[in-house]
Design brief:
The complex is a heterodimer. Chain A is an alpha/beta fold. Chain A contains 9 helices and 9 strands. Chain A has 2 domains: 1-67 and 152-245, Rossmann fold, CATH 3.40.50; 76-151, no CATH class. Chain B is 82% helix and 0% strand. Classes of the chains: A alpha/beta, B mainly alpha.
Chain lengths: 245, 255
């Protein structure tokens, strides 16, 4: 039990009698990077919301006692005229006192905050309006947000939504760096299988149920992908899929 | 020429500050017209107070609070939007209010009359205005987070439903306060106009809410002084004053 940072057993979610997640079981060990893949409407974001206790579910979600979770939701729509600076936004999470932690978090996501750059920083990130940031900058700020409070595990829902192609790679490099430096466990939802091959060491294919799971290079084959994304995939079931190492 | 009454001015200062401050958050939550519509829910309460001879503020707050609790309950049960439910309660209350308000008092209930304010009303207004500002300040961070993303807020441990309830309670309080000054029909202006004027000028949350409170104060106090000077009804003059301020901010608008 203590080997696992998260153990999910028979997790199901229903909306208005319609089953969106059905008997999902898996576990996550400390230090893993677990990718969740699946078609649109497969229940990936719903699963995250259930893991975080944001919506009602049946089954068991057991987090390691005392675990600190950081969460970055899928693409936040910030109204263009919202009068809110990056600094104010980050203070929503960390309170009024620890400016230092905010600067550290920004450093971690590759936003320069060296003392010599203080005035540069004041003008370019902290005092800028949240709604005026580019997609990539905003995503970095959100990741910085999730790092406040020193989480043990990060949950990322499509970390590159709203980021242009060049920036997408950089965000993933950043996640890998965070994983290495801070010894973080990461669960991420991604639509891009190349990214999953490159950055994840475990994968779950989700389409209402778990269709496959294991090491990406082993389980992401044409058979499992057909089952996941293909038209006639609904009845496919892999008998050993749930019991990976 | 009637003299400017200090009770009116003191009430104007505090109600102006509180409605401007709370209005700033209402506008961010896209509740600009909720305050306006909700104010009509107060009408039956004012009517009951007039008929049974107790303080109309208490009557207004009573029915507002009932309305808000009902909206909150139905909202959590049915997933109908706040806006749609306010639409229901607004027309229903207006209908009941018009039926039971004594005919000779209807005009005052609809348009308010701050010139008739008593010492008790003033003391009540000052205390409640300060309470609204203080409570809103203390939930502001959590409220804003819930406005940006309820999921993000909940994942950070914010009890979003509870915060929303407290907020609606504050809205009921501020609407009941503002009605005395400008009446049920014009109350919406008191929370909306200072906020959008302030938004033209500011980029951060702290400057936006501060300027909105200040504009609320200036509109209400300025409107009361003007109305007294020219012997006009204060409600409409207050709304015209804040509209004038809004037009100025439109010219000064940044970026």
């Amino acid at each position: 039990m203590s080997e696992q940072i998260l153990k999910v057993d028979n997790l199901s979610v229903e909306f208005d009698g319609h089953r969106v997640l059905d008997g999902v079981s898996f576990s996550v060990k400390p230090g893993e990077v677990l990718a969740v893949v699946g078609p649109n409407g497969a229940g990936k974001s719903v699963m995250f919301r259930a893991l975080l206790g944001l919506i009602p579910y049946s089954g068991d979600v057991d987090w390691q006692p005392g675990v600190n979770i950081g969460y970055v939701p899928q693409k936040l729509a910030i109204e263009r005229a919202l009068p809110l600076t990056v600094k104010e936004f980050l203070h929503f999470k960390s309170g009024d006192t620890d400016e230092k932690e905010i600067l550290q978090a920004l450093e971690s996501v590759g936003i320069k905050t060296a003392v010599s750059n203080q005035s540069h920083l004041e003008h370019h990130i902290l005092n800028r309006r949240l709604s005026m940031l580019s997609g990539g900058e905003f995503q970095r700020v959100l990741i910085a947000w999730s790092l406040l409070g020193n989480p043990d595990i990060l949950l990322f829902d499509e970390p590159t939504a709203g980021v242009d192609i060049g920036g997408e790679e950089t965000i993933y490099n950043l996640l890998r760096q965070l994983h290495d430096q801070r010894d973080l466990t990461i669960i991420l939802i991604s639509h891009d299988l190349n990214i999953v091959y490159k950055y994840a060491n475990q994968v779950i294919c989700l389409n209402q149920k778990i269709v496959c799971s294991g090491v990406p290079s082993q389980v992401l084959n044409s058979e499992s992908l057909a089952a996941l994304y293909g038209e006639e995939a609904t009845v496919y079931h892999h008998p050993h899929a749930m019991h990976h190492e | 020429m009637s003299e400017v009454n200090y009770l009116q001015l003191i009430t104007g200062v505090f109600v102006g500050l509180a409605s401007g401050y709370l209005g700033a958050f209402m506008v961010l939550r896209r509740m600009a017209l909720v305050g306006d519509a909700l104010s009509h829910v107060a009408l039956p309460g004012i009517a009951l107070a007039l008929v049974f001879n107790f303080n109309p503020f208490l009557g207004a707050f009573g029915t507002l609070f009932l309305g808000i609790v009902s909206i909150w309950l139905i909202e959590n049960k049915t997933e109908l939007s706040t806006e749609a439910l306010v639409g229901l309660f607004f027309t229903f209350s207006l209908a009941v209010g018009i039926l039971i308000t004594p005919r000779e008092d209807l005009l005052e209930a609809l348009f308010g009359d701050i010139s008739k304010i008593s010492l008790t009303d003033t003391v009540l207004a000052v205390i409640l205005s300060l309470a609204v500002i203080f409570v809103m300040r203390s939930i502001a961070k959590k409220f804003m987070l819930g406005t940006i993303s309820p999921d993000l807020a909940k994942s950070a441990g914010v009890k979003v439903a509870a915060i929303n309830f407290v907020f609606m309670f504050l809205v009921a309080g501020i609407v009941a306060l503002g009605i005395k000054a400008v009446g049920t029909l014009l109350m919406g202006a008191l929370v909306v106009i200072p906020a959008i004027a302030s938004r033209n000028l500011t980029a951060s949350l702290s400057s936006y809410t501060f300027a909105s409170a200040l504009i609320g104060l200036v509109s209400l106090v300025g409107g009361i002084i003007l109305a007294n000077t020219y012997q006009l009804p204060p409600g409409p003059i207050v709304v015209l004053a804040s509209t004038a301020i809004f037009l100025v901010t439109l010219i000064l608008k940044r970026d």
